[in-house]
Amino acid sequence: MKAEKRGGKAKNSRMVNVPCSICGIDMDCPDPKPKNDMLTCDRCMELLEKGYSPEELKMTPQDIAKHIPRCEKVAKEMQYLAFDDAWEQVHEIGIEHFDHETLAKEFYNRGAVSMLLLMISLEMPPEMLDQLEEVSREAKKMRVVEKNNRGE
Ligand SMILES: [Zn+2]
Q1: Mind listing the pLDDT tens digit for each residue in 20-38?
Q2: pLDDT tens, position by position, 71-114
Q3: Measured in angstroms, how far is the CA atom of residue 26 from the centroid of ligand 1?
Q4: Of 37, 41, 35, 36, whose CA–CA distance to 22 is shortest?
């Protein structure tokens, strides 16, 4: 069925951007859209085939927030890998020899790098890193504009 869909794409080059009917993320769809057909993105299609229910795949902020308690629990486990040993070394040397801002940034970076590596190991295309960089640069620019507008 996937091959058929791809073949169809090649013949019918007109595509429209539509939200996935389950998670809501934007996806390409042949134009005109198929009628009476659930428009499901590749991610949801794959997870439905693995037995997940549509309810579990929704991605509204409320749906995502439901995962916070479990994320906190897993984060605590991951803390061991990205934090505990290095923090022990800081105490061996003596925390008074470190600048607090430098330490905070170092440990934030360790956590963020762990998350990004995890996302890549879970099949996030590495080129997503370029998009994340772009989004971060844009967010930084917006923050500078906001600060200037507030006169900071
Ligand atoms: Zn989806």
Answers
A1: 999 988 888 888 777 656 7
A2: 999 888 888 878 898 999 999 999 999 999 999 999 999 888 98
A3: 8
A4: 41
C-alpha pair distances (Å), 64 with each of 7, 23, 47, 50, 114: 35, 11, 16, 20, 20
Task: Report how far ligand 1's centroid is from the alpha carbon of 38 (Å).
Answer: 10
Q: List Cβ neighbours of 111 (8 Å cut-off, separation of 6 or more).
A: 78, 82, 83
Residues with CB under 5 A from ligand 1 (ion): 20, 22-23, 41, 44
State in Å: Cα 74 to ligand 1 middle: 24
pTM of the full structure: 0.57
Q: What gap in Å lies between CA 45 and CA 124, rounded to an integer?
A: 17
24 and 39 Cβ atoms separated by less than 8 Å: no
Please report, for the chain, the start and end positions of each structural domain, with discontinuous segments joined by +.
2-62, 65-149
